[in-house]
């Protein structure tokens, strides 16, 4: 049986999860570890969140069991608490949000108690943000280490030919209805909002781009002047961080959840604003979108300020945490 340093068991269910899993694997490899990433096979769609999580947890267990029959890792990292719920053997848990926060009531009737048990049994918790650890109510006896998702510019700056962009794979959670209402307030003739991650009926000023590859999506970000979102809950905010990395001005609402991007977006005010934060109602959110569109700063000046603010999330910074802290703790 082959021996490796770290096995990562991921779900890859969303763009954000795939980015997080790929980046963790890349950081471990750059740190000199022999790391392997395996992902659960996507299960069939079911009606409730509790059953959806069960299907994904079973798929993650199957992926782990099959891989463990062929390789012997010194450490296992389950990427999300869902991947750890039915684990075949204990491992570290990497997560952006826990069922304790994002599965209230009947939606998390079985996940929350199992998750709490797994967090007690895990040798290490690896939240992507300190807020995620706090929201999870993680047991203080379990060691933890915050490791953000690295974010980098996706390419050379381009002409900002798209007025506004939003990402709406989960329309209700991402607040697409709020964004569209705000856009009706903010839009001027000739301006267009592009909705990524979803198909829908195009109308004047709104175009649906459908499902995109990561490269296609980031290419849109490089051409967008404003990225706007109005989430009802934000587990991390990788799309907002990617928007900052690619120089798009970010407009958002406050939202429950760890929302790692929000403190950055609160930084500065007026002419030094990094983000525009408004209530979710159409008029104030639309006014914030308009203010971002009319921001007089040169695009290069804003992009430089955004990258400076992103320093804790840049790949070199995260790689140092993985190399100097995470890998030694995983292999101890």
What can you tell me about this protein's structure?
The protein has 14 helices and eleven strands. It is α/β, with parallel strands linked by helices and 332 residues long. It has two domains: 2-148 and 315-331, Rossmann fold, CATH 3.40.50; 162-312, Rossmann fold, CATH 3.40.50.2000. The strands form two sheets. The chain has a six-stranded parallel sheet with strand order 8-7-6-9-10-11, with helices on both faces. Helix 1 (15-30) crosses helix 14 (315-331) and helix 8 crosses helix 12 (282-293). The protein starts with a strand and ends with a helix. The mean pLDDT is 95.
Itemize the secondary structure elements and their pairings.
Elements: E1 2-10, H1 15-30, E2 35-39, H2 49-68, E3 71-79, H3 81-84, E4 92-95, H4 99-102, H5 111-121, E5 125-127, H6 130-136, E6 162-167, H7 171-174, H8 176-186, E7 193-196, E8 206-210, H9 214-223, E9 224-228, H10 238-245, E10 249-252, H11 262-266, E11 275-277, H12 282-293, H13 299-309, H14 315-331
Parallel strand pairs: 1-2, 1-3, 3-4, 4-5, 6-7, 6-9, 7-8, 9-10, 10-11
Quick synopsis:
The chain has about 325 residues and is α/β, with parallel strands linked by helices. The chain has 14 helices and 11 strands.
Report mean pLDDT, rounded to a whole number: 95
Strand order of the largest sheet: 8-7-6-9-10-11
> Which strand-content bin applies to the residues?
15-25%
One letter per element, helices H and strands E, the order comes to: EHEHEHEHHEHEHHEEHEHEHEHHH
- Largest sheet: number of strands, sense, barrel closure: 6 strands, parallel
- Rg, rounded, reads 20 Å
Given the structure, what is the number of helices?
Answer: 14
The fold-level CATH name of the largest domain is: Rossmann fold
How far apart are the termini?
Answer: 21 Å
Low-confidence stretches: none
Give the CA-based shape. Answer: globular
Quaternary organisation? single chain
Reported CATH architecture of the largest domain: 3-Layer(aba) Sandwich
Main structural class: alpha/beta
Helical proportion, percent range: 40-55%
CATH homologous superfamily identity of the largest domain: Glycogen Phosphorylase B
The total tally of domains equals 2
| Total E-strand runs | 11
CATH class of the largest domain: Alpha Beta
